[in-house]
Specification:
With 388 residues, the protein is an alpha+beta fold. The chain has a domain of 209 residues: HIT family, subunit A, CATH 3.30.428. It is built from nine helices and 13 strands. The strands form two sheets. A nine-stranded antiparallel β-sheet has the order 4-5-7-6-11-12-10-9-8, with helices on both faces. Strands 1-2-3-13 form a four-stranded mixed β-sheet. A hairpin with a 2-residue loop joins strand 8 and strand 9. Helix 5 crosses helix 6 and helix 7 crosses helix 9. InterPro entries: HIT-like_sf.
C-alpha cells in the first residue's frame, strides 16, 4: 500500500505550498500550536575528516529544523546529517538478554501467585493478565499489570485489550478505596533500556491524590490556549479536550493524522511532529476499554516492533475515567471530557550503550528527532494496509 507520507519529509513543513489543499481550519490549528524554524549550520571539513567519514572536504552546510509545540512547550530538533553520526559505544552482545533464560522458575512474574504481592482489595485477573501490588511503590496506590506469558515483545490484540480492561478495573477498585485519589497513570516500560526492572512483559498502574506535573503543565497550557481572546471562564477538562482536538487537526493539516474504528468507537492517531523521543505516536480515544483504542494500540506497537525493528519502548496512558459518575462511553458529558491518550515512543537500539537522554533533554528541554515522523506514519500506513 503506497502512502502519501512516504513522499514527504519533516523538512516539508517549511514549504506551505505542500499543504495548500488542507482544510483552512486545520491549518489554523497548525499555525497556532506549532512553530517551525530552520537554523542553517555551516562547518569546514578537513580532508582527513572527510576521508574518515566519507564526506566532502571544504565548507559544508546543514539544515537543522526546530518544531515546537508552544502549548506544552515541547521542542524537537531535526537534522538528517545526524543519522550518519558515528556511535563508539556499542554492546557486542545480542541485545535481547533474558536473565531468567526464558522465565519459569527463575522469573518472579511467571510465578505471580506466590512471588508477587496483592493489593488490599485482591487481584484483578483475566485469561491473559493479572494484577499485583507493586512491591517497591512509587505511589501509595501503585500496581503491576502482568501478562501471563513471559516474552515482553510477543502479545496479541486480545492480550492488550485484557491489559487495558484489567487496568480499568484496578483503577475503579483503587478509587473506591481512596476516593481522594483522582489522577491515574498507566506506564508500560519494555526492557531495561526503557526502565523495566523485569524481563517479563508487564505494565504499571498508579492512582495519585496529587496531579502528575506533566499533566498539570498540559492543563495550564491548554487553558491558556483555550482562553486566548476569550473573557469567559473555561473548564480545565474542556480546555484539554479542545487542545487534543486541535492538535489532531494540526497533524491532519500536514498529513500525519489517521483515524480507525467504527461509528461510535473511533480513535485518532498521529506521528508526533514534535516527538518527545524517537518514533512517538500519539493515540487519542474515548475510554480505556474501547475496542478501537485497544486494537489501535496493539497495531501501533506491532508496527514499531515488527516493521521498524523496535525492541524497547515506553507507553504512557492518561485521562482514564474514574467511577460511574465520570464521563463514560455514550454519556453527554463525554463530548467535552478530556480524552484517553496513549503516547508511544521507541527507546533506541538495545545494542547501543549510549543513553537516548542527555543534557539537552534534561536541561534544555529539547529532543533530538532521529526518525522522520513521515517515515513512521508511512510504516503505519503500510502495516495497516497489510492487515487489510
Amino acid at each position: 500500500m503506497s502512502s502519501l507520507a512516504s513522499e514527504r519529509s519533516i523538512f516539508d513543513l517549511m514549504d506551505s505550498s505542500r499543504y495548500s489543499e488542507a482544510d483552512p481550519k486545520d491549518l489554523e490549528c497548525f499555525s497556532k500550536i506549532f512553530k517551525v524554524r530552520e537554523h542553517p549550520g555551516t562547518l569546514v571539513v578537513s580532508e582527513e575528516l572527510a576521508e574518515k567519514y566519507g564526506g566532502l572536504a571544504g565548507e559544508r552546510r546543514q539544515r537543522v529544523l526546530s518544531v515546537t509545540n508552544v502549548v506544552i512547550t515541547q521542542q524537537t530538533l531535526f537534522n538528517e546529517e545526524r543519522t550518519k553520526k558515528p556511535q563508539t559505544f556499542f554492546d557486542t552482545g545480542v541485545g535481547l538478554d533474558d536473565p531468567t533464560s526464558g522465565g519459569g522458575a527463575a522469573c518472579d512474574f511467571c510465578q505471580w501467585e506466590t512471588l508477587t504481592a496483592e493489593d488490599e482489595w485482591g487481584r484483578v485477573e483475566t485469561a491473559n493478565v493479572v494484577t499485583a501490588s507493586n512491591l517497591f511503590k512509587a505511589h501509595g496506590l501503585h500496581g503491576c499489570l502482568l501478562f501471563k506469558h513471559h516474552d515482553p515483545l510477543q502479545f496479541t490484540s486480545e492480550q492488550v485489550s485484557q491489559l487495558l480492561s484489567a487496568a480499568d478495573e484496578w483503577l475503579q477498585q483503587a478509587h473506591a478505596v481512596r476516593p481522594d485519589a483522582q489522577h491515574p497513570l498507566l506506564l508500560w516500560n519494555c526492557l531495561p533500556r526503557a526502565g523495566a526492572s523485569q524481563f517479563h512483559g508487564h505494565a504499571q498502574i498508579m492512582l495519585s491524590s496529587v496531579d502528575f506535573p506533566e499533566f498539570e503543565r498540559l492543563r495550564h497550557g491548554a487553558l491558556e490556549y483555550a482562553s486566548s481572546g476569550s473573557k469567559s471562564h473555561v473548564d480545565p477538562e474542556a480546555a484539554v479536550a479542545q487542545y487534543y482536538r486541535d492538535v489532531a487537526r494540526a497533524h491532519r493539516a500536514v498529513g500525519l493524522l489517521r483515524e480507525f474504528g467504527t461509528e461510535g468507537d473511533k480513535v485518532q492517531c498521529y506521528a508526533n511532529m514534535s516527538p518527545l523521543k524517537d518514533m512517538e505516536v500519539v493515540l487519542i480515544g474515548r475510554h480505556l476499554t474501547s475496542s478501537a483504542f485497544a486494537t489501535a494500540l496493539h497495531n501501533i506497537l506491532r508496527c514499531l516492533i515488527d516493521d521498524r525493528g523496535v525492541r524497547t519502548f515506553n507507553v504512557g496512558i492518561s485521562g482514564m475515567a474514574l467511577g460511574s459518575g465520570q464521563a463514560r462511553e455514550g454519556s453527554q458529558a463525554a463530548q467535552i471530557a478530556a480524552p484517553v491518550v496513549a503516547r508511544i515512543v521507541s527507546r533506541g537500539s538495545l545494542k547501543s550503550r549510549a543513553s537516548d537522554f542527555g543534557a539537552l533533554e534534561l536541561f534544555g528541554g529539547s529532543s533530538i528527532g532521529h526518525s522522520d515522523p513521515y517515515r513512521v506514519m508511512a510504516s503505519l500506513d503500510d502495516f495497516m494496509g497489510k492487515k487489510g
